[in-house]
């Protein structure tokens, strides 16, 4: 009997619906031997929830191995070589991966930038027009480039009216202070550090503004390999469930959860709190973490709308938006159908089985 059938059976009786996650898991997965799951992500608190699953034994059916790999391209290539199962990364890569023939799917939106991303300008720059012909620092081929390009067009400037330079993080901070670039897209803590270090610098845009929240542009996602989804589907479902069980546990135990994530990511608790917040509300930090229902709604796999005036099934619109931009930036040749890179059936199966996170 598959996990899906077991889960459906366990959740058909009203009394079972009141069971704790631990008891449901015991009913549905105790007979399964622990399955190895290999997960990769770079050093970022938003990817740290699997450390909670490990530390609190929230998925006893799984032997989760989380590897910190700073280059997401390396992680995706490991998936292609069947040496990795899951990758946590920014949510714009899928169209590029599809065109390159990588056997991966975006299976979930993980979190939405809620102020952690900023476009910071140097002294004397107050508008998009002021940047014409000047150099700006972004991660070329990443969300920061799309963020910058969309902001330029939103404010009446052509997206290619600036010179994009592939400089990020500390190097971008140094370039701003040295006057090498006129503006940069930063994530925390680099944006705040730049504002503190560079007199006269200012914020031109930040991702907590309603426009960016509704668009869902600056976000992280979870990817799975095609083999993992199709050949080890029960394990893929358990892995997704472990993620959302961990998010729910963190929301109820934010202080301990942030410490676990800090230890797992080898970061300070203060930096984790800057990104995730302190109270588990998901709105007092720089990221808004999607729970199961919100992610399923964004995928179009559960009824209702996700937060911030987003729409049910918006993941397809997100695919079209980022694909259009990658065509403009000559990163891909054409826009492919969303089903070539998006897999929402895992959310759908869990929802139909009665899981709600």
From TrEMBL:
Annotated localization: Periplasm
Any coiled-coil regions, as ranges: none
Domain of life: Bacteria
Cited SUPFAM superfamilies: Periplasmic binding protein-like II
Pfam families for this protein: NMT1 (PF09084)
Record bears the keyword Signal: yes
GO annotation, cellular component aspect: periplasmic space
Main location: periplasm
Family assignment from sequence similarity: Belongs to the bacterial solute-binding protein SsuA/TauA family.
Entry protein name: NitT/TauT family transport system substrate-binding protein
């Amino acid at each position: 009997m598959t996990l899906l059938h077991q889960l459906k059976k366990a959740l058909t009786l009203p009394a079972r619906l009141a069971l704790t996650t631990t008891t449901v898991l015991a009913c549905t997965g105790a007979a399964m031997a622990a399955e190895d799951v290999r997960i990769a992500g770079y050093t970022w608190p938003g990817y740290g929830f699997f450390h909670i699953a490990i530390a609190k034994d929230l998925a006893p059916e799984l032997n989760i191995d989380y590897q910190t790999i700073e280059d997401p391209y390396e992680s995706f290539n490991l998936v292609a070589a069947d040496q990795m199962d899951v990758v946590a990364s920014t949510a714009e890569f899928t169209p590029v991966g599809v065109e390159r023939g990588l056997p991966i799917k975006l299976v979930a939106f993980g979190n939405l930038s809620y102020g952690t991303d900023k476009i910071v300008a140097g002294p004397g720059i107050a508008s998009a027009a002021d940047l014409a012909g000047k150099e700006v620092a972004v991660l070329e081929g990443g969300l920061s480039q799309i963020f910058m390009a969309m902001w330029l067009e939103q404010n009446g400037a052509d997206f290619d009216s600036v010179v994009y330079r592939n400089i990020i993080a500390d190097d971008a901070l140094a370039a701003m202070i040295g006057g090498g670039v006129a503006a940069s897209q930063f994530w925390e803590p680099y944006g705040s550090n730049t504002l503190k270090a560079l007199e006269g610098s200012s914020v031109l845009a930040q991702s907590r503004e309603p426009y960016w929240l509704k668009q869902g542009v600056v976000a992280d996602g979870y990817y799975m390999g095609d083999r993992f989804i199709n050949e080890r589907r029960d394990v893929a479902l358990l892995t997704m469930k472990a993620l959302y069980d961990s998010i729910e546990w963190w929301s109820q135990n934010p202080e301990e959860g942030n410490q676990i994530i800090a230890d797992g990511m080898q970061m300070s608790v203060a930096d984790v709190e800057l990104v995730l917040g302190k109270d588990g509300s998901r709105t007092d930090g720089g990221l808004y973490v999607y729970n199961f229902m919100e992610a399923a709604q964004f995928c179009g796999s559960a009824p209702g709308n996700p937060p911030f005036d987003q729409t049910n099934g918006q993941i397809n619109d997100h695919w079209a938006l980022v694909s259009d931009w990658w065509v403009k930036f000559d990163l891909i040749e054409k826009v492919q159908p969303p089903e070539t890179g998006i897999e929402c059936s895992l959310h759908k199966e869990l929802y139909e089985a009665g899981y709600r996170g």
